[in-house]
Write a structure and sequence with these properties.
Elements: E1 3-6, H1 12-16, H2 26-39, H3 41-52, H4 63-71, H5 75-93, E2 100-102, E3 108-116, E4 119-123, H6 132-145, E5 149-154, H7 163-172, E6 176-179, H8 182-191, E7 201-203, H9 208-217, E8 222-223, E9 231-236, H10 242-253, E10 260-265, H11 268-282, H12 288-298, E11 300-303, H13 307-317, E12 321-325, H14 330-333, E13 341-344, H15 350-355, E14 381-389, H16 391-407, H17 411-418
Parallel strand pairs: 1-11, 4-5, 4-7, 5-6, 7-8, 9-10, 9-12, 10-11, 12-13
Antiparallel strand pairs: 2-3, 3-14
């Protein structure tokens, strides 16, 4: 089921390119977005009836509906949600940026203002699983950043939303929720409708149609990233427990048939044991069909000469999740250059990052960890610089500014600076 490769045979391009083959969603998404932009709520109702099987009287979740859903959630799970939220807040608090002012030159004040976005739209999928964790991970950093309003869209099954998702929205601080999903929800966020207001940024995962919609609306609105299917790369040494490694690989394989689980090890014995463990654990897995398809299409075991060579391979692949199941993992941390999130040691499974540890689980995929980062407080603010000069300070630098401008052939720029040297002089 899961294929083994020697380090010289690694199919890097195959690992990095897992886009759905032969599925042209671009045209469909373009039509949906155009319809929503033109027809607003009327288009939303048509698509919601078509794809979700219900035409809601109202897209907005009422306070009573929200309260009723939260009250149906067990006290034990609410406690877990609150504890997870506290861990996420604690981590993301450290990411907050401050304004700064520079006054090193006499008569000159320079600075930067950090300004939270006015409104953010959070998309939460509702397909093969429910994701209260997505709500926490996307909303809490936005709340800490000081975003003015956070609205959420998620599809309703038979007109009803998952209570756990609504409870997570209450815990995280979502302001309003709308029962709409798919590319049409992204269009509503990007362009606004009679019911759903336009946002400044869209965050949150989704299927191929949602990802394509985010790509197409980018520019009219900001987006977090266009994330692909989930992925994990586990680096494991010869004394790693094969049952633990297999469980971690399956934790990603069960996400999606396009998900990817890769083991890189310097032990052929471990590789064979992990294969057997995968077969054994699959038998009792509720999402076995999905996990099996994922492993068959995208699962890989790569044999290397050493752990250092395994890290070189990991840096080339730049995985979303990277586990270092080795002795003294901190000894290798500095060598890791490209990974969305790094899990160190034998007792830090990737599932910690999905739900509870604190770092964000919205991560770059498909090799984009080479140049991009996990979702953070930074994603929900923008920065404006400011400049102040006294008359004397400008007089000291105006000639240099003019010289620079003329070097670029921009005489009006030069005159703009020089005009203030002699206020009575006419240009």
């Amino acid at each position: 089921m899961i294929r083994t490769y020697r380090y010289k045979e690694i199919p890097i391009e195959e690992i990095l390119d897992r886009r759905a083959k032969g599925e042209d969603v671009s045209r469909t998404v373009e039509e949906i977005l155009s319809d929503v932009k033109k027809n607003g709520d009327e288009a939303l109702r048509r698509y919601t009836e078509k794809f979700d099987g219900v035409a809601p009287a109202s897209f907005a979740v009422s306070e009573d509906e929200w309260n009723e859903a939260v009250s149906s959630v067990s006290g034990e799970f609410l406690t877990v949600l609150h504890e997870a939220a506290s861990h996420i807040r604690l981590f993301h608090e450290k990411q907050k940026r401050n304004d700064f002012v520079v006054t090193k030159r006499e008569g000159v004040i320079l600075g930067q203002k950090v300004i939270p976005l006015d409104r953010v739209g959070l998309y939460v999928p509702g397909g093969t699983a429910n994701y209260p964790s997505t709500v926490l991970m996307n909303c809490i950093p936005a709340r800490l950043a000081g975003v003015g309003e956070i609205i959420m869209a998620t599809p309703a099954k038979d007109g009803k939303l998952n209570p756990d998702v609504l409870a997570a929205a209450r815990v995280a601080g979502v302001d309003r929720i709308f029962k709409v999903g798919g590319a049409q929800a992204i269009g509503a966020f990007a362009y606004g409708t009679g019911t759903i207001p336009r946002v400044d940024k869209i965050v949150g995962p989704g299927n191929a149609f949602v990802a394509e919609a985010k790509r197409q609306v980018f520019g009219a609105v900001s987006i977090d990233m266009i994330a692909g299917p989930s992925e994990i790369l586990v680096i494991a040494d010869e004394v790693s427990d094969p049952a633990w490694v297999a469980a971690d690989l399956l934790s990603q394989a069960e996400h999606d048939k396009q998900a990817q689980a890769v083991l890189v090890t310097d032990s052929e014995v471990l590789a064979e044991r992990v294969k057997k463990e995968i077969e054994r654990q699959l038998a009792g897995l509720a999402r076995r069909e999905i996990a099996e398809a994922s492993l068959k299409q995208n699962g890989k075991i790569i044999l290397t000469k050493s752990i250092r060579q395994a890290i070189e391979i990991a840096n080339e692949i730049a995985p979303e999740h990277l586990e270092l199941c080795v002795e003294e993992p901190f000894a290798y941390l500095e060598r890791i250059r490209h990974a969305g999130s790094i899990f160190l040691g034998r007792y830090a499974p990737e599932a910690l990052g999905d739900y509870f540890a604190g770092p964000n689980h919205t991560l770059p995929t498909g090799g984009t960890a080479r140049f991009s980062s996990p979702l953070s407080v930074d994603d929900f603010v923008k920065r404006s610089s400011f400049t102040y000069y006294t008359r004397k300070a400008l007089q000291n630098e105006a000639e240099k500014i003019a010289a620079f401008a003329r070097r670029e052939g921009l005489e009006a720029h030069a005159r703009s600076a020089l005009a203030r040297l002699c206020e009575e002089e006419k240009l």
